[in-house]
């Protein structure tokens, strides 16, 4: 057996083991990205079957995206069949073709629609011939949203099929109604599911006043999930990064009276997220009150949304953030430390509050406080920072410490 064959065997083993570093090294050394195993299955297909997005992306750079395995499927059709929403998105983004068909004559859209209409549990039972209960666990996707991973009789799929269908339809010129898309989202009670991301994203891309009107009308519905859907669609549809920010006023007009009477914290979180993004003075003025909300996630979001106001020297915003450095929730305390990054250098209160967090019981809070002090050229957090060096890119503090390093080398953005 030649050297190349040995390299290919090593690549197949690395892909099966999910060893991304080995895969990258072997590809760099000349291993064939289209190597096939003993069953004629290319390594890209093996990575898809393993739901290994990292390895899929490594192979995509040089493998044939539309290679056909022994069962007649391309990697894309395989990913759709598996319900792998993030891998499907990566393959399509990389140029995988939609027109290939499986053994039953189904192209990408038809296959996704089949799973959507049949249901993952029903199809698993049909394929396995088993009626036992289906194993399930929640997995987080890379491109937004989570989904369930279902297993039965040695078969495993993820419940991303409806999200995949929703993302594919516009590529075929299909435009489902607002109500149809909402019904797909509401079929999944977990609003972190990928289908919520897909449906609201598709509606955002329409930039249609009728979509905004339909979403706004949901604010009066008794079902909190319907209100959540409407708020999320509006938040995405009205988000505007342009200098003139023509939609920010409309978002504030809708969200301010809505959030004042909204009883569900999940919906409130979305509304506060929209207000945090909106470049409207009324939206910013509403945030200090939400730093005292009973729900920690909402307090954290409101604190983060006050960064610009703190940087502008707004005394109410600064007081609200300083108070949260003593919050009961560590995530809120960390957000407060981060929000003090832009506080004016002449004020002693932010630095003293950060110094007070150096003895916090949560490491994330201590490190964030120490880094912000370093960015203010305050040496009180030096001992904590020295204990973290060196930090590689796998460290949760890598970018924070990199910012400190660049500041010390004269690469500061001049904010202090």
UniProtKB/TrEMBL annotation:
Cited InterPro entries: Ankyrin_rpt, Ankyrin_rpt-contain_sf, ARM-like, ARM-type_fold
Keywords linked to the UniProt accession: ANK repeat, Repeat
SUPFAM superfamilies recorded: Ankyrin repeat, ARM repeat
Residues in ANK repeats: 6-38, 71-103
GO MF, one annotated term: ubiquitin-protein transferase activity
Leader sequence residues: none
Superkingdom of origin: Bacteria
A single GO BP: protein K6-linked ubiquitination
Gene3D superfamilies referenced in this protein's UniProt entry, alphabetically: Ankyrin repeat-containing domain, Leucine-rich Repeat Variant
Protein's name according to its UniProt entry: Ankyrin repeat domain-containing protein
Organism per entry: Streptomyces piniterrae
């Amino acid at each position: 057996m030649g050297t190349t064959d040995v390299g290919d065997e090593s690549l197949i083993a690395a892909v099966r083991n999910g060893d991304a570093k080995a895969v990258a090294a072997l590809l760099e050394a000349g291993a064939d990205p289209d190597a096939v195993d003993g069953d004629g299955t290319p390594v890209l297909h093996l990575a898809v079957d393993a739901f290994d997005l990292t390895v899929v992306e490594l192979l995509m750079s040089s493998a044939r995206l539309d290679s056909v395995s022994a069962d007649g499927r391309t990697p894309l059709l395989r990913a759709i069949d598996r319900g792998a929403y993030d891998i499907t998105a990566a393959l399509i983004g990389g140029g995988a073709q939609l027109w290939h068909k499986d053994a039953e004559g189904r192209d990408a859209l038809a296959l996704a629609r089949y799973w959507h209409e049949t249901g993952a549990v029903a199809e698993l039972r049909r394929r396995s011939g088993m009626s036992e209960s289906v194993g399930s666990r929640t997995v987080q996707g890379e491109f937004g949203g989570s989904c369930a991973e279902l297993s039965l009789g040695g078969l495993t799929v993820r419940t991303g099929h409806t999200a995949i269908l929703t993302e594919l339809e516009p590529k075929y010129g299909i435009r489902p109604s607002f109500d149809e898309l909402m019904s797909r989202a509401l079929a999944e009670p977990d609003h972190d599911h990928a289908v919520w991301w897909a449906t609201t994203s598709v509606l955002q891309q329409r930039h249609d006043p009728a979509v905004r009107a339909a979403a706004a009308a949901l604010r009066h519905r008794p079902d909190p999930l319907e209100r959540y859907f409407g708020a999320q669609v509006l938040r995405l549809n009205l988000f505007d990064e342009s200098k003139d920010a023509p939609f920010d006023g409309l978002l504030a007009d809708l969200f301010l009276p809505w959030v004042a009477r909204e009883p569900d914290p999940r919906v409130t979180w979305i509304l506060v997220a929209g207000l945090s993004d909106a470049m409207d003075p009324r939206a910013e003025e509403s945030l200090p009150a939400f730093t005292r909300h009973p729900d920690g996630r909402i307090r954290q979001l409101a604190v983060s949304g006050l960064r610009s106001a703190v940087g502008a020297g707004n005394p109410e915003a600064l007081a609200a953030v300083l108070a949260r450095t003593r919050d009961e929730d560590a995530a809120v305390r960390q957000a407060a430390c981060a929000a003090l990054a832009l506080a004016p250098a002449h004020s002693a209160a932010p630095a003293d509050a950060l110094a007070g967090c150096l003895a916090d019981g949560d490491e994330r809070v201590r490190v964030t406080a120490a880094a912000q002090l370093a960015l203010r050229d305050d040496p009180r957090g030096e001992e904590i920072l020295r204990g973290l060096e060196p930090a590689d890119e796998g460290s949760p503090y890598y970018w924070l410490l990199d910012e400190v390093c660049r500041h010390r080398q004269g690469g500061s953005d001049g904010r202090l």
